[in-house]
Write a structure and sequence with these properties.
The chain is mainly α. It folds into two domains: 193 residues, Orthogonal Bundle (Clc chloride channel); 173 residues, Clc chloride channel, CATH 1.10.3080.10. Helices cover 67% and strands 3% of the residues. It has 17 helices and two strands. The protein has a two-stranded antiparallel sheet. The longest helix is centred in the first third of the chain and has 42 residues. The radius of gyration is 21 Å and the shape is globular.
Length: 421
């Protein structure tokens, strides 16, 4: 590439990255502020959970009537990255914003990453027509939008950029996407945190043991558990989605039925621990022993909520599942409780999304770089043992290594259907 092309490329993506960063960062900030209000209102008005079926109908009917292909959510972003057939509709932003806020307000169990990523991607794609971007540049701006949304909603710019690259271009990261993703992620995070003053939750790993061989080896069985947990979550979400689609033909009715069952569960258990984001419980997982079944309850309730058609992300619930599973495993694995919660926090996320590099970096941004080796091993092992599962059905995993049983041992091999590199 000559100097003129380099200057043109740099100038273009400085401008586009700045615009996408401002749009995605502002959208995430407004969303997080609104979500905090919805969570606080629900926690102080327990009765509102009884209205979850009504909220579910509003969400379901709105997407059924106006959503069109927006109902595909994050998978639409992946489909368009691979095929570049149709623009991401601008309506995706208000639809997923309102749908997620209503889900949390009335007591559904969901996250926030999916909402931020969809808003970032849909807002970014609107610039395609104004700047007359070619298909390759359009792919890059979609990646930038995802990076901005993820970075700003969690306050992790490096992980946001890497997540977009690793998630959307699995093992095929192209150098042209690096600068736009990183630049947009830092701009979006700055807009959300500095301009809007949105703060993010801090987690503390107060003790990181020495990097001895025995300490590092103990991470392997934990990572295997995290990988299977991520796989369980992904398959459970797809299972419930399939069952609701199979037995309830009218889409708006699916979250109504799901809402009735979720509300009944909350009232019978008399606990709101497993609905909403569950951030207070995640913080507790770093500080004190918790019931062993917390991760399993959150897995079931979140996969059921999303499978029924409610809106929101999967990542924060995955943090909950991983942190509480790590907390439970600390009973048998002789590593500090907070460290076990931390490696579970990112390990289950890695297994469910197939993004071990982004998850490792995210852990270091959130917990400190001292725990990086433990985090990296956990994320890699979880990634390998999660198999071909993913919470995103459209994610291209043709290049992923697999674990196949061979003569009683596990060996690494490539997917037979993959093309030669």
């Amino acid at each position: 590439m000559n100097t003129q092309k380099i200057l043109k490329y740099t100038g273009l993506w400085i401008v586009l990255g700045l615009l996408v960063g401002i749009l995605s960062g502002a959208a995430s900030a407004i969303f997080l502020i609104t979500l905090d209000w919805a969570t606080a209102y629900r926690e102080s008005h327990f009765w509102i959970i009884a209205l979850l079926p009504i909220g579910g109908f509003v969400i379901g009917w709105t997407y059924y009537r106006y959503g069109e292909n927006s109902v595909k959510g994050n998978n639409l972003l992946l489909d368009e990255l691979y095929k570049t057939e149709k623009p991401i509709p601008l309506r995706m932003t208000p639809l997923v914003f309102i749908g997620t806020v209503l889900t949390h307000l009335f007591g559904g169990s969901a996250g926030r990453e999916g909402t931020a990523v969809q808003m970032g991607g849909s807002l970014a794609d609107q610039l395609t027509k104004y700047f007359h971007l070619n298909p390759e540049d359009r792919r890059i701006i979609l990646i930038a939008g995802v990076a901005g949304g993820f970075a700003s909603v969690f306050g992790t710019p490096l992980a946001g950029a890497l997540f977009a690259l690793e998630w959307m271009l699995h093992r095929e990261i192209r150098w042209k996407s690096l600068f736009p993703a990183l630049w947009t992620a830092f701009v979006a995070n700055w807009v959300c945190a500095s301009l809007f003053g949105v703060s993010h939750t801090h987690y503390l790993i107060d003790l990181v043991p020495q990097h001895t061989l025995i300490n590092l080896l103990w991470v392997i069985p934990a990572g295997i558990a995290f990988g299977f947990s991520g796989r369980l979550f992904a398959q459970s979400t797809h299972f419930f989605s399939h069952q609701f689609s199979k037995y309830i033909a009218y889409p708006p009715l699916r979250p109504v039925i799901g809402g009735l069952l979720i509300a009944a569960f909350v009232y019978i258990s008399d606990s709101t621990t497993y609905i909403g984001l569950g951030v207070p419980r995640i913080v507790e997982a770093f500080e004190t022993p918790l019931p062993w079944y917390d991760w399993l309850a959150k897995t079931g309730l979140t996969s059921f909520t999303l499978g029924a058609g409610f809106k929101g992300g999967e990542v924060t619930p995955l943090f909950f599942i991983g942190a509480t599973l790590g907390n439970a495993l600390a009973t048998w694995i002789p590593l500090p409780l907070a460290l076990m919660a931390g490696i579970g926090f990112v390990g289950v996320f890695s297994g469910a999304t197939n993004t071990p590099l982004a998850c490792t970096v995210m852990g270091m941004e959130l917990f400190g770089y001292e725990s990086g080796i433990f985090l990296g091993i956990s994320c890699l092992i979880a990634y390998l043992f999660s198999g071909r599962s993913s919470i995103y059905s459209s994610q291209n995993l043709n290049n992923k290594f697999h674990l196949y049983p061979a003569e009683g041992l596990f060996t690494l091999s490539r997917n037979k259907s993959q093309k030669n590199d």
